[in-house]
Amino acid sequence: MITFYDSVLEARRINDQMMLVERSFLDRQGLPRRPDYNHVVVAPSSSDEYAANAFAGLTDALNGIESLSPEEQEDRWREFSQHLAAVTHFLGVAAKVLTLDLW
């Protein structure tokens, strides 16, 4: 039989896990060219501050890339690649939190 105490502990465990998942998406360095925004999964786009955008750092890096000079495009692709590596890392950490495979 599940007691009230057991259900409170289970709720606490789930809440702690949800907080860890959210924290795993925070990048202390912030998004590329926008260090004030730390969440790598959901953030406002640089072109629309009112709407949340999935993976805003990646979409912003690609936005308008075709109109840049070749040197600027190279820099932007490097920025995109570095941010993609960071996002991949944070997603991996979140997956470990969800599978309880942190330590």
Description:
The chain has 103 residues and is mainly α. The protein has a single domain, classed as Up-down Bundle (Transcription Elongation Factor S-II, Chain A), CATH 1.20.930. Helix content is 54%, strand content 11%. The protein has a two-stranded antiparallel sheet. β1 (42-45) and β2 form a beta hairpin.
Key traits:
Transcription Elongation Factor S-II, Chain A, TFR-like_dimer_dom_sf, 103 residues, mainly alpha, TFR-like_dimer_dom, Transferrin receptor-like dimerisation domain-containing protein, elongated, single chain, two-stranded antiparallel ribbon
Sequence-ordered SSE layout with sheet pairings:
Elements (H helix, E strand, L loop, with lengths): L3 H20 L18 E4 L2 E7 L1 H7 L7 H29 L5
Antiparallel strand pairs: 1-2
Helix pairs in contact: 1-3, 2-3
Rg is 18 Å
User: What would you call the structural class?
Assistant: mainly alpha
**Architecture, according to CATH?**
Up-down Bundle
Instruction: Give me the CATH fold name.
Output: Transcription Elongation Factor S-II, Chain A
Report the helical percentage.
40-55%
Give the count of structural domains: 1
Between the first and last Cα atoms, what is the distance in angstroms? 31 Å
How much beta, percentage-wise? 5-15%
Q: What is the global morphology? A: elongated
Strand order of the largest sheet: 1-2
CATH class value: Mainly Alpha
Please tally the helical runs, counting DSSP H or I stretches of 4 or more residues.
3
- How many individual β-strands? 2
Q: On the 0-100 scale, what is the average pLDDT? A: 92
The SSE string, one letter per element, is HEEHH
